[in-house]
Automatic annotation (TrEMBL), chain A:
UniProt family annotation: Belongs to the IL-6 superfamily.
A molecular function GO annotation: cytokine activity
Gene Ontology annotations for the cellular component aspect, listed alphabetically: extracellular space
Protein's UniProt name: Cardiotrophin-1
Known role: Induces cardiac myocyte hypertrophy in vitro. Binds to and activates the ILST/gp130 receptor.
Gene3D superfamilies: 1.20.1250.10
Keywords per UniProt: Cytokine, Secreted
UniProtKB/TrEMBL annotation, chain B:
UniProt-listed Gene3D superfamilies: Immunoglobulins
Gene Ontology cellular-component terms listed: CRLF-CLCF1 complex; external side of plasma membrane; receptor complex
GTP-binding among keywords: no
Species in which this protein is naturally found: Zalophus californianus
Signal peptide: 1-36
UniProt domain Fibronectin type-III: residue ranges: 136-231, 236-340
Gene designation: CRLF1
Record's keyword terms, sorted: Disulfide bond, Glycoprotein, Immunoglobulin domain, Phosphoprotein, Receptor, Repeat, Secreted, Signal
Descriptive protein name: Cytokine receptor-like factor 1
Family: Belongs to the type I cytokine receptor family. Type 3 subfamily.
Length: 208, 425
């Protein structure tokens, strides 16, 4: 593995204790989880558009990609950032996604009460986003990098504001709420896929 | 028009939604400063309408710079572009739409009515809910498993198709006192069912009904009154065993155990047996198996695999006079009759164990003869069992009745024993 920020090699480590296999295993596990969740996120998106009706599922359907409070898509320059910074952004996004997926699930429970599979996928996605975010933070900690997230209270306040904003969107009408859900499911897919890619670069033997 | 009270939501115009602050979530309609982008508001927002009614809607454009025009705007409904003649420009910034004779909504989340700019971009959307108010649910039926719970099923009115999400709520209360209760475990045995798991009283009637509600109104079923004890069912009889009766080629013996949950109460229980040939779908049912846990099937085909099932009706629980409710059938149990060179009879009947005769004429006459023998010749050990053993022996040795002699013990009143020949039977 090349020497770069976030490298697994630690020349200061006591040679009698080798944390590398443990760290490698953790990275592989988290990468595998991200890969699995990428597949689930794709399935969620397909299930979601089916239940909103056309034009949501039609090719070429393109509502405005307006920003969601507290969360945006991976920036074009994300791939060029150092590994720990990428993982920090991944973890922060996954953490922000969980309450937004909860809002979408609650609204879909009113709009599509007879779609148990959709509701279950949304519920699972919220839990999975949190789990993957925690796993990425554990990898960061094992790498010796600071997670550098916001302090707990401001983070909770930011999450509450995002939820309030999303709830306000649902109050503005059903169509905007459908679009919000599509946006959130799309962001979930983008960030899980981005996390898989970022971890893949850390897996020994993976692409540099 | 369908029955049901009109609901509060059947209106064709609503207030336009408020604008959102820029710092909060940007939904469709929030302008991007300096971008020249236009946004719009559709009115009414998310209306609920009866099938066959009409809709008048408007798309009002806002924008930066001002002076956004309605020219070039168009509508789509569920992704399909609406004919231009359905639209007209009301003023410089407003495009109107008139839809008549609306069909029921295509999806329960609402039909997507969208206002587009000339370049196809989405300016605003509104969801239409077109359907019918619910009709009165009917045909409520309920049963209690082992007196511990109550499950009810019903049929939605109008075959359930209201095109709108319709919520069904099963309510119940004790007839003479108590408050209304609402069932909470739905869809347990189908889409229109509910299960009440506990806290049910016996020996006192319940009133049960179903309320159906959707955006266009509500309806209530008739009230069903019942006592839990009159609608009891139980588990299928366990441990069903089917076995051959010696070498008898046309008989199988069926044995089972009383359902354990009610075994202390099944004094008058009824049982039913059904059986079929392995490669047939036609079941034959034996009905008159009352309060016993064994039975013999007769008149079967030799060398044939039969599937057998048993079910129980806990009739008369705690003195109930009602018919009771049959359990599910037990899991199929299979057995085969012995093979024979001679073709067997095709009919079927159930002979209870102990050799009680069936309704066949030969066996009726035989029963009469055996009864006479016991009375006049003191042949206390003569029985159908002995007769069946003789039949099995006959089949085994392939000899006719006129060619064989067998030993039986039939003491006379004076104590002398006498050999009984089968041909004298």
């Amino acid at each position: 593995m090349s020497r770069r920020e976030g490298s697994l090699e630690d020349p200061q480590a006591d040679s009698s204790i080798s944390p590398l296999p443990h760290l490698e295993a953790k990275i592989r596990q988290t990468h595998s989880l991200a890969r699995l969740l990428t597949k689930y996120a794709e399935q969620l998106l397909q299930e979601y558009v089916q239940h909103q009706g056309d034009p949501f599922g039609l090719p070429g359907f393109s509502p405005p990609r307006l920003p969601v409070a507290g969360l945006s898509a991976p920036a074009p320059g994300h791939a060029g950032l150092p590994a720990p910074e990428r993982l920090r952004l991944d973890a922060a996004a996954l953490s922000a996604l969980q309450p937004l997926l909860d809002v979408v699930r609650r609204h879909q429970a009113e709009l599509n009460p007879r779609a148990p599979r959709l509701l279950r996928r949304l519920e699972d996605a919220a839990r999975q986003a949190r789990a993957l975010g925690a796993a990425v933070e554990a990898v960061l900690a094992a790498l010796g990098a600071e997670t550098r997230g916001p302090p707990a209270e401001p983070a909770a306040a930011a999450a509450a504001a995002a939820v309030a904003a999303a709830t306000a969107a649902t109050d503005a009408g059903v169509f905007p709420a459908k679009v919000l859900g599509l946006r959130v499911c799309g962001l979930y897919r983008e960030w899980v896929s981005r996390t898989e890619g970022d971890l893949g670069q850390l897996v020994p033997g993976g692409p540099a | 028009m369908p029955a049901g009270r009109p609901g509060p939501a059947a209106q064709s115009a609503r207030r336009p939604p408020p604008l959102l602050p820029l710092l909060l979530l940007c939904v469709l309609g929030a302008p991007r400063a300096g971008s020249g982008a236009h946004t719009a508001v559709i009115s009414p927002q998310d209306p609920t309408l009866l099938i066959g009614s009409s809709l008048q809607a408007t798309c009002s454009v806002h924008g930066d710079p001002p002076g956004a025009t309605a020219e070039g705007l168009y509508w789509t409904l569920n992704g399909r572009r609406l004919a231009p003649e359905l639209s007209r420009v009301l003023n410089a910034s407003t495009l109107a739409l008139a839809l008549a004779n609306l069909n029921g909504s295509r999806q329960q989340s609402g039909d997507n009515l969208v206002c587009h700019a000339r370049d196809g971009s989405i300016l605003a959307g509104s969801c239409l809910y077109v359907g019918l108010p619910p009709e009165k649910p009917f045909n409520i039926s309920c049963w209690s498993k082992n007196m511990k719970d109550l499950t009810c099923r019903w049929t939605p009115g109008a075959h359930g198709e209201t095109f709108l999400h319709t919520n069904y709520s099963l309510k119940y209360k004790l007839r003479w006192y108590g408050q209304d209760n609402t069932c909470e475990e739905y869809h347990t045995v189908g889409p229109h069912s509910c299960h009440i798991p506990k806290d049910l009283a016996l020996f006192t009637p319940y009133e049960i009904w179903v309320e159906a509600t959707n955006r266009l109104g509500s309806a209530r079923s008739d009230v069903l009154t019942l006592d839990i004890l009159d609608v009891v069912t139980t588990d299928p009889p366990p441990d069903v065993h089917v076995s051959r009766v010696g070498g008898l080629e046309d008989q199988l013996s069926v044995r089972w155990v009383s359902p354990p949950a009610l075994k202390d109460f099944l004094f008058q229980a009824k049982y039913q047996i059904r059986y079929r040939v392995e490669d047939s779908v036609d079941w034959k049912v034996v009905d008159d198996v009352s309060n016993q846990t064994s039975c013999r099937l007769a008149g079967l085909k030799p060398g044939t695999v039969y599937f057998v099932q048993v079910r129980c009706n806990p009739f008369g629980i705690y003195g109930s006079k009602k018919a009771g409710i049959w359990s599910e059938w037990s899991h199929p149990t299979a057995a085969s009759t012995p093979r024979s060179e001679r073709p067997g009879p095709g009919g079927g009947a159930c002979e209870p164990r102990g050799g009680e005769p069936s309704s066949g004429p030969v066996r009726r006459e035989l029963k009469q003869f055996l009864g006479w023998l016991k009375k006049h010749a003191y042949c206390s050990n003569l029985s159908f069992r002995l007769y069946d053993q003789w039949r099995a022996w006959m089949q085994k040795t392939h000899k006719t009745r006129n060619q064989h002699r067998t030993r039986g013990s039939c003491p006379r009143a004076d104590g002398a024993r006498r050999e009984v020949l089968p041909d004298k039977l």
